[in-house]
Amino acid sequence: xxxYVVRRLLWMPVVVLAVALVTFALGLxxxxxxxxxxxxxxxxxxxxxxxxxxxxxxQPFAIQFVRYVGRVLRxxxxxxxxxxxxxxxxxxxxxxxxxxxLAFVAMVISFxxxxxxxxxAATRQGRWLDTxxxxxxxxxxxxxxFVVAPILQWIFTRQLHWLPTAGWEGIxxxxxxxxxxxxxxxxxxxxxxxxxxxxxxxxxxxxxxTARAKGLAERIVLTRHILRxxxxxxxxxxxxxxxxxxxxxxxxxxxxxxxxVGRLAFESIFARDYPVIMATTLVGAVSFxxxxxxxxIAYTFVDPRIRYK
Length: 309
Hints:
Layout: H1 2-29, H2 34-39, H3 45-55, H4 61-73, H5 88-123, H6 128-142, H7 145-159, H8 177-203, H9 206-213, H10 218-230, H11 232-244, H12 250-256, H13 261-271, H14 274-302
Helix pairs in contact: 1-14, 5-6, 5-8, 5-11, 5-14, 6-8, 7-8, 8-10, 8-11, 9-10, 11-14, 12-13, 13-14
């Protein structure tokens, strides 16, 4: 196991470097010039040239990329183009904490609802409850968050007056409930469907029939023999959640006015703030690699038959 973890960690710089190279090239050769966006439509050509030289945008691609990688290795992501004089790391750090809190609450909601819903649907296969769960999961997967968000705001804010419509006051505030619910609805549907399929597959196994033939209580059969073996695909979905913790939810944070990484990335895209875009992309890449490593390790605890060399 230790050798496997070390190999995965050694591959992480290669993956991150490849992501950085692609993102840097798209930012440099993609449409739009951050200098022209910052200076506006009446920019002076001399001012544009001076600012491009100040930011080093007039240097060859290889030189710019090597300099950027050198700064990143020192944990220096540069300064924001939009927020002049503001280091990108100082912009990201507090927003990553906000996004992590929101994603954590959404993850708890998703698994707390999705796993039981999937188990209930599988154990009542062919009945009306199974049909209802499957139908609701299809509805949840197919409905985008920018449609779900205003509907829930209209119901819980305008009609019931239960929850605030937007804003951020921390994880223990009621303002986190609506965005976390909106963010958690699509994963709820995915988790419920994966759980249902996995449970149905495990129920048909011989060892489950043997456990029931021995007279074990259905609760013990479900928890010890069915759920434990059906959790592999669910743990895979957990990896995607872990990868999203620091990277934020672009649309949800923008709709609800949450000062997270997703909202910052959304604003940076329109402002052509490439240092911020690059930093958020790298954070997402590192999070994804680490989340997959955590999931692979978790497999060995859930299923003892899985071993890594």
